[in-house]
């Protein structure tokens, strides 16, 4: 087994233990492998290992790697062990002038945090005859420099986004602050989960609203315990290679 395969194996085991601790099924927690710090050979190896939900936080990098991987899959089209397609997740801050570029490639945009951005996505998607899935990014840490809608404004924004016909709001995303203080991290994830149930409960959204994207390399076990359905993990898989 390669180092990379071992690290993924280790992450999968930790996910399974966190699920067991919190009486959850591992199938209910999806792993998005964040490739921003990886080389193309490593990314190809990840795909060979059967993982096809990948994430990038910058549009240009996403387009570049998505193009390279599409070519790789095409060249190995007769290899039945490879996934047929890659699902790309745009996890970083999205500028409105980059929306069109991202729509063609992504299966889920995690970082919608203003009405203006949602409207831009809605308009571009309408023209392309698409209906992309998006998450509302919430700032649960109250750090002013962070992206994400403040918790207190999130329900109203969700309501407004729901009125846009060319996108589908399917959940929330949040990031915990960079700290070793586990209580602070857990408090952020709990806030996100409470908000998630609040939005669901007020019937602002439809039955598609099912995803809670939270948890990175340093905090994904806490995120699972607090209800994450999508993890975004990079450095725990690619570090040191
Ligand atoms: C980089 C990044 C991640 C992954 O972080 P790691 O610590 O490398 O696991 C997750 N989410 C977002 C938004 C990121 O930018």
UniProtKB/TrEMBL annotation:
Q: Which domain of life is it from?
A: Bacteria
Which residues are recorded with the post-translational modification N6-(pyridoxal phosphate)lysine? 36
Obligatory cofactor(s): pyridoxal 5'-phosphate
What role is this protein assigned?
Answer: Pyridoxal 5'-phosphate (PLP)-binding protein, which is involved in PLP homeostasis.
For this protein, the record's HAMAP family field holds: PLP_homeostasis (MF_02087)
Annotated protein name in UniProt: Pyridoxal phosphate homeostasis protein
Residues forming the Alanine racemase N-terminal domain are 87-239
Keyword Iron set for record: no
Q: Which UniProt keywords apply?
A: Pyridoxal phosphate
Pfam families annotated for this entry?
Ala_racemase_N
Which family does the similarity line name?
Answer: Belongs to the pyridoxal phosphate-binding protein YggS/PROSC family.
Q: Name one GO molecular function term.
A: pyridoxal phosphate binding
* Record-linked SUPFAM superfamilies: PLP-binding barrel (SSF51419)
């Amino acid at each position: 087994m390669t180092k990379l395969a071992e690290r993924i194996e280790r992450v999968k085991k930790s996910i399974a233990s966190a699920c067991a601790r919190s009486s959850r099924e591992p199938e209910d927690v999806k792993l998005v492998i964040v490739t921003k710090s990886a080389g193309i050979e490593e990314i190809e190896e990840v795909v060979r290992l059967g993982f096809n939900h990948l994430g990038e936080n910058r549009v240009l990098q996403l387009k570049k790697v998505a193009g390279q991987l599409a070519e790789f899959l095409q060249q190995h089209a007769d290899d039945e062990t490879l996934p047929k397609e890659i699902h790309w997740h745009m996890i970083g801050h999205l500028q409105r002038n980059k929306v069109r570029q991202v729509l063609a490639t992504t299966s889920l945009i995690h970082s919608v945090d203003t009405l203006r951005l949602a409207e831009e996505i809605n308009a571009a998607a309408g023209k392309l005859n698409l209906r992309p899935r998006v998450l509302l990014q919430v700032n649960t840490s109250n750090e002013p420099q962070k992206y994400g809608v403040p918790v207190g404004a999130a329900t109203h924004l969700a309501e407004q986004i729901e009125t846009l016909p060319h996108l589908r709001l399917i959940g929330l995303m949040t990031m915990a602050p960079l700290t070793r203080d586990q209580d602070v991290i857990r408090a952020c994830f709990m806030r996100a989960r409470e908000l998630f149930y609040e939005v669901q409960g007020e019937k602002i959204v439809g039955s598609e609203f099912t995803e809670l994207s939270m948890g990175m390399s340093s905090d994904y076990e806490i995120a699972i315990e607090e209800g994450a359905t999508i993890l975004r993990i990079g450095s725990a898989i690619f570090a040191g290679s």
